[in-house]
Amino acid sequence: MEAVFNGAAVQEGRQKDLANYRPITLLPVLYKVFTRCILARIRRTLEEAQPVEQAGFRRNFSTLDHIATCRRLIEASREHRLPLVMTFIDYKKAFDSVEPVKVWEALEEQGVERIYVDVLRECYSHCTTVFHPFYNDVVVAVQKGVRQGDPISPNLFSACLEHVIRRCDWSNYGVNIDGVRLNHLRFADDIVLITESPEHASEMLHRLDEEGSHCGLTINTSKTKVMRNQFSGDTPVLLKGGAIEDVDEYVYLGSQLNMRNDLTGELARRRKARWAAFNSIKSVLEDTRDCKLRADLFNSTVLPALS
Questions:
Q1: Domain range holding 298?
Q2: Which superkingdom (predicted)?
């Protein structure tokens, strides 16, 4: 069962910028059923290897867990006048960049049976992408990334990221909560580093970048941001000799955070998103009298913009 990369999807920005394109994996339905069966057999093993800091693609976990944790940290730091530095990590095309060989290494490290690792390795051994320059087909072997659209891909990526973070050795960093140090939160590849000083944030960021590079992951310094409160000083957070940009607010997992814990901006952003979503389906709603269709459109388009 071969997988072929064919076509591309514009993510955002200028259409003539190749960086705004991402390949789409066309996978046979039979292959997806097969990998879903593999996932059913190894899911429990993978979940047991994940710490509570990882909430992405896990049962009984939600973005709300991490959002609430961030807001509580901000509230507690203001109440007790404690320094707090939050560094929001952005990777360059994380799912398309991981090295498959590191994924298989991570699976074995986390207790997945060798037979399943070998099966997945074989599934990835004959993947190609096709270009059509001047009407001539050029076939290139794909040697990086996990397949977007494959049911098992999110779990493979999470396993690889856990493999990276285990090697970062952040045990002495973070904020102390009842004797336990909380130094980061992650939802898939959305990572926030939590420290008491910008110097510690720089050290954690450097270790993450160094260990991630071994697996093909590269931190996007232009989109990585730092948010800090007034008690943490103004020392810049550094990576590769450059300073990471400081921001007063940041949209994390769909919720706007700031060190004042002020919800005014978040409510305004939600209202704007709600009207934008409604206007995108307004013409369809006006042209149909089918109440069920109108309700389904509203529930699938407008409500997600509010939650």
A1: 269-306
A2: Eukaryota
